[in-house]
Design brief:
The chain is built from ten helices and seven strands. It is of the alpha+beta class. It has one domain (21-293). The longest helix is centred in the first third of the chain and has 9 residues, at 102-110. The chain is globular, with a radius of gyration of 19 Å.
């Protein structure tokens, strides 16, 4: 049985303090969300009546998926429907959100029910998880360690492709907090195995879902437009969600009995992302106005204006770093180590 997290690391200095879920919940503003898609389907679906269903043949694309399958679907209908229901919401971008530091994720890890995810039991803990902040929008300021288009998942009706950009699947994005580690990200499509593992094991995951991208950011939230942000400071806002299907030692590095091949810092993530911005010279602070929306450009007179092709540099949240002189790019990755 999985256990609560309790760990130390040579990469980060961590301390786990008692979590104050009520204070955090009070500080947050609730954000209305809707499933979107087919109204006749959506209006009859609530968190209390969601069910897992089998996919019919020939689902055309993500739009057909999410218009007709609010929880997604799979061949065997063996997934957690409440978890997928949360993943497939389309909340409006939140205002006045609280930002989570690495220590906040440590606290969330510590307070995660140890048997969450066993037997598709997410709904059994929905009140406890809501008190920890699940379903509310939060922000994270960190560094873009890596990104990729994912493979087939039940939340997206097990669709893949058909385009290289990954139009039917989530964009799985790793955000970290270590300036030295961020500085090692140099735009290679496949970094050395040891570095790739280090990036993954120290990443908090955020997910851009295909139907959210299509509804709100059809032209700007692309893998190509993530390239300039690679290795840079980013400011991300999204729905806090615990991806309970990964609460197992092979995936979750927060568990005491984690395996050497675990690949995520926490099962808590921002999903879906509602805001994604980066700082070209890494001088941005949480409230500064020189953040650049993904796919956008720096404004005139903006400290981050200029060449928007981006460098891969890093620094701790709130600390400035000089941009490097080399421009770097990254190609979409689908290596199995950076898993959805």
């Amino acid at each position: 049985m999985a256990t609560k997290s309790s760990r130390t690391s040579t990469t980060f200095a961590r301390h786990v303090a008692p979590f104050a879920p009520l204070a955090l919940a009070v500080a947050m503003n609730a954000v209305p969300a809707s499933t979107g898609g087919n109204a006749a389907v959506s209006e009859n679906v609530t968190p209390d009546n969601v069910t897992a269903v089998r996919c019919e043949e020939n689902i055309a694309d993500f739009q057909a998926c999410h218009e007709n399958y609010p929880t997604g679907c799979s061949a065997a209908a063996g997934y957690d429907p409440y978890l997928n229901y949360l993943k497939n919401l389309t909340p409006s971008p939140g205002a006045g959100v609280n930002f989570l530091a690495q220590s906040d994720f440590d606290n969330l890890n510590t307070n995660t029910p140890s048997d969450l995810g066993q037997g598709n039991n997410h709904a059994d803990y929905k009140e406890q998880l809501a008190n920890l902040g699940e379903g509310r929008q939060f922000g994270v300021i960190g560094y873009l360690y890596y990104y990729q288009a994912t493979g087939a998942e039940s939340s997206n009706c097990e669709l893949t492709g058909p385009d290289a950009e990954g139009g039917n699947v989530d964009f799985h994005i790793g955000i970290g907090f270590d300036s030295d580690l961020a500085a090692k990200v140099d735009g290679r499509a496949k970094p050395a195995a040891a570095l790739k593992k280090q990036l993954q094991q120290n990443s908090v995951i955020v997910e851009m879902t295909p139907h959210y991208r299509a509804q709100f950011h059809a032209n700007d939230w692309t893998l190509a437009n993530l390239k300039p942000a690679l290795g840079h400071k980013v400011r991300v806002i999204g729905q806090l969600l615990v991806d309970s299907e990964h609460n197992k030692p092979a995936d979750n590095c927060a568990l005491e009995d984690k395996t050497a091949h675990c690949w995520r810092y926490s099962i808590w993530e921002l999903h879906p992302v509602t805001v994604f911005e980066y700082c070209q010279d890494d001088s941005c602070t949480q409230g500064s106005d020189n953040w650049i929306p993904i796919g956008g450009t720096a404004s005139a007179g903006n400290p981050s204006s200029g060449d928007n092709s981006g460098d891969s540099t890093g620094g701790e949240a709130g600390a400035g770093r000089r941009p490097r002189g080399t421009t770097r790019t990254a190609t979409p990755r689908s290596d199995s180590a950076a898993r959805p």
